[in-house]
Design brief:
- This protein is an all-beta fold.
- It has a single domain, classed as Jelly Rolls.
- About 0% of the residues lie in helices and about 60% in strands.
- The strands form 2 sheets. Strands 1, 3, 6, 7 and 9 form a 5-stranded antiparallel sheet that branches. The chain has a 4-stranded antiparallel sheet with strand order 2-8-4-5, with no helix packed on it.
């Protein structure tokens, strides 16, 4: 199985990256990274959007405040045509905070 790294960089979110799809066969997009919450007991995460369509989120519950937490990686089943695409990672909700101490990865598996 081949991979294509789309995003591998520090925050803050949002991050938008253009890329070219490697083909039109089925593939999986994996997203992961870290975020934090200013208050305790918050569901926090990273939202993924491909070409303007929300795919979903990678999330974790933060039981502590102001601690950077790695989200549980999320995988999205994709199929699109060859050519230019755009991926955006953003905070999942108003409880989520992202700064330059957080790091993000988005990888296509095909």
């Amino acid at each position: 199985m081949a991979i294509q790294v789309i995003i591998s960089q520090a925050g803050p979110l949002p991050i938008t990256v253009p890329f070219n799809a490697p083909g039109d066969e089925p593939m999986y997009l994996e997203i992961n990274g870290s975020v934090w919450a200013p208050a305790v007991g918050q569901m926090i995460g990273i939202s993924a959007e491909l070409n303007g369509k929300v795919l979903g989120q990678a999330q974790i519950c933060s039981n502590g405040s102001t601690t950077h937490r790695a989200v549980v990686p999320a995988y999205f089943d994709l199929r699109f045509s060859d050519g230019p695409q755009s991926l955006t990672l953003s905070v999942a909700n108003s409880n989520t905070t992202s700064d330059s101490n957080d790091f993000y990865n988005a990888v296509l598996h095909y």
